[in-house]
Specification:
mainly alpha; two-stranded antiparallel ribbon; 70% helix
Length: 239
């Protein structure tokens, strides 16, 4: 592998990933809105969860699901397109470097004081180019693992990323793909530390123990919750 080309792939991926479509969509649709800090109240308590991420989730919460979905698509494309470019242009694993760097740029964008999203849409944006089937297999598998087997919203949220590791090994038997899967899991967990601390504190204090209540603390959780009900995993009387 050419180190100069690897550095170029990382730079292209990072600077594309650092484009904050959440901010762009918000600025166009509702320039008066501040989406850089979001407080979410917890039912039956005075507690609030503070989300510092600026992402499709916060766009959805402030501007509605239509603009949130638009942001998700744009966030995925900014990772998918550079990854596809390197995948089809070069035989080696430069595309994995581009995809991983794009996720880093999405989470810590140099253009916006290193305050970005949490990386889930960026990971799956890369996966659309790396392994299209894996996008659906791991995301649905992770949701079922969290909702049906372990019954924990945090597992439902990150379970798909965990499954990337065995899935990419099964699909490719390539060490570079496994390293990529492990790397994005580590980066995602680092990005999620602020929210995870708040979540775990609430669980220790016995607040939000009901699965339906906990799942609806974030926009992403509400999306997973609605999907689970649609699949019949959670019934309407769960909340």
């Amino acid at each position: 592998m050419d180190p100069v080309l690897a550095l170029f792939a990382a730079a292209v991926g990072y600077f594309c990933g650092a484009i904050s479509f959440a901010r762009l969509v918000s600025k166009i649709v509702a320039p008066q809105k501040d989406i850089t800090s979001t407080e979410i109240g917890i039912a039956s308590t005075e507690e609030k969860v503070i989300m510092s991420a600026v992402s499709a989730t916060t766009v959805s919460m402030h501007l509605g699901s239509k603009f949130g979905f638009m942001t998700v698509v744009l966030d995925m494309l900014k990772i998918t397109l550079p990854t596809l470019l390197f995948k089809h242009r070069y035989a080696e694993s430069y595309f994995l470097i581009s995809a991983a760097a794009g996720m880093v740029g999405h989470i810590w964008p140099v253009y916006h004081g290193f305050q970005g999203g949490r990386g889930l849409s960026a990971v799956y944006g890369g996966m659309f180019a790396i392994d299209l089937i894996g996008v659906f297999a791991t995301s649905i598998g992770g949701m079922l693992l969290g909702l049906v087997v372990i019954r924990d919203v945090l597992v439902a949220y990150v379970g798909g990323l965990w499954l990337l590791i065995p899935w990419l090994w099964f699909r490719t038997h390539d060490v570079a793909h496994v390293i990529y899967a492990v790397a994005v899991n580590i980066v995602f967990l680092l990005a999620m530390i602020p929210e995870m601390k708040q979540y775990l504190r609430l669980r220790r204090e016995g607040k939000g123990d009901d699965l339906a209540e906990v799942m609806q603390l974030t926009g992403m959780g509400r999306g997973i919750y609605k999907m689970a009900k649609r699949f019949g995993v959670i019934k309407d009387d769960a909340n």
